[in-house]
Amino acid sequence: MFKHAQLESVKTWINHPDYRPLPLHGRIHRAIRQMILDGTLEAGKALPASRALAQSLEVSRDTIETAYGQLHAEGFIVRKVGSGTHVSERARGMSVKGPKPAQLPPSSTMHLSHRGKAIFQSGGLRDFLIPRPFAPGVPETRRFPLALWERLQRQALKEHGTQVLSHSPPQGLLSLRQAIADYINLERGARASADRVLILTSSQQALTLVANVLLDPRDAVFIEDPVYQGAYKAFIAAGLRCIPIPLDQEGMQVEHILNMPNAAKAVFLTPSHQFPSGTSLSLQRRLSIIEWAHRHQGWIIEDDYDSEFHYDGKPTACVQGLDSQDRTIYIGTFTKSLFPALRLAYMVLPPPLVEAFTIARSLQDGHSAAIAQLTLARFIEGGHFGAYIRQMRQLYAKRRDTLARLLEQELSDYLHAQVPAGGMQMACRLLTQDAESDIISRARRANIELLGLQGLCQQAPYQRGFLMGFAAYTPDELRIAVTRLKQIFATFPV
C-alpha cells in the first residue's frame, strides 16, 4: 500500500497544470510514471491493488485499471496473478531525478544559447487574437469577400484535386510567383520575374532569412531610427550590430551612411511609409542608397509592408525597381493587404541568391500550403486583389481622416497627430509631460492598444508619443476609443 506521503504525491501530480487537460486515467498514469522516474517509487516496490487505490483517490476502479494497463504496456510496472502489481525491475536503470511539482524551474533559469537569449530578451508576445483600437498594422477583415475566396478555393481544389494535399515546391508555386511578379511590376515599378520570387509565410521570416543567409554575426546593418522592431529583433537575434540612422521629413538621412560607407554591409529601409513615422524616402535619397550599395557591395533590405495603401498622389517606385545593379532584396506581405491568417509573404531576390535562400527556407519550414497559394494566385490573376485594394484604400483614407479629426477635436491638448500620406497607422507626438508607459498601461486596462514611440528609438533624443492604428476600426469604434483615451488623459494631474 502507498504511504501517506506517496498517496499525497499522486494527488499533487494529478492536479498539476500540465496534466489537467488529460482524462483522469491519463493523469493518474502520468503521476505514477513520474514517481517511478524520479525515484519516489523504487524498482520492486509493490503498488496498491486497483480497488484499494481507487478508494483512496475516490475514483472508479476502471480508471485505475486503465492507468495500470498503460503503465504495464510501457514497461514501468509488472502484474502477476497472486503476487500483485510491482514497479518493474527495469525501472532501476531508468530513474531520472527531477523536480517536485512545486519546484519546477522557471524558464528563465534554463540555459539558452546567445541567440536564444537575444530572442527571449527582445520582448514579450503580442496579443494578436483580439485587435483593440488603436493596434497598428491590423487590416480590416470584416469586409473581406469570403464568398469569392471560397469560390476560388473550390475551383483550385476541383482542378488540382489531391495534389494540393502534398508538399509544394520550397520556392512556391509558379502560378503565385508569376502573379506576384506581374502585379508588383505594374503597381510598384519593380523589376521582378517569377524565377526571382520566393514564397514565405511572413515578412518576419524574410527578415530572419536575410539576417542569417547574407550576414555573419558581428556584421553591422544600418537601420532607420526609429525602427520597425520586428526587423531590429531579427537582426539582434542573428548576432548583428545595428547602426541607427536618424530621420527627417524626407526619410532616412542617407548622408550619415555616405559619411561612413564601410561601417555596415546592409541597410534596412521601409521607404514607402517609414515605420513608424510614415514619411516617404525621397527619390534622391533612394538613388544615393543604390549608389552606396553598388559602390561598396552592400545590400539593401527593402520592406514594402503596406505600400498598397497610399492616399495622396501616386507612390514613388520601389527601390528594387530603381536598382539596376541587383543589390536590393524586396520584401512584401499579404498579412496587411488581405488578412493575417493567410500566412503568405514573398521576397524578390537577385538571381544569384535565389537558390541559397530557397534552401535556407526549406530548412526552416519546408514549404507553404498549396491550397492557399493557388487560391491567392487566382485572386490576383482575376483582378480581385487590385479591386479589393482600391476599395480598402478608399476606406482606410476615410478612417485616417476620421481619426485625425477626432484627435484634433478631443485630444489636441495632449497629442499632435502627424497625418501620414499612406499606411495603416498614425504617429502622434505626446504634448504633455506624462510618462508614455503610464498612459499605455492605463489605456490597455481600458481595452485600448497604444504602441509607444520611445521604445522604437535607438538613440536620444527620443520622440515621446504613440503609433495609433486606424485601418481596422469603424468611425464609431474610433470615436469611442478616442473618448476613452481622453478620459485616461484626464486622470493625470495637470
List keywords for this structure.
about 500 residues, alpha/beta, Arc Repressor Mutant, subunit A, Aspartate Aminotransferase, domain 2, Aspartate Aminotransferase, domain 1, 3 domains, eight-stranded mixed sheet, four-stranded antiparallel sheet, 15 strands, globular, transferase, DNA-binding, WH_DNA-bd_sf, transcription, transaminase activity
Report on the structure:
It is a single chain. The chain has 494 residues and is α/β, with parallel strands linked by helices. It has three domains: 4-103, Arc Repressor Mutant, subunit A, CATH 1.10.10.10; 142-386, Aspartate Aminotransferase, domain 2, CATH 3.40.640; 390-490, Aspartate Aminotransferase, domain 1, CATH 3.90.1150. Helix content is 41%, strand content 13%. It is globular and about 90 Å long. The strands form three sheets. It has an eight-stranded mixed β-sheet with strand order 4-11-10-9-8-5-6-7, with helices on both faces. In the C-terminal section; belongs to the class-I pyridoxal-phosphate-dependent aminotransferase family. Residues 22-90 form the HTH gntR-type domain. Keywords: Aminotransferase, DNA-binding, Pyridoxal phosphate, Transcription, Transcription regulation, Transferase.
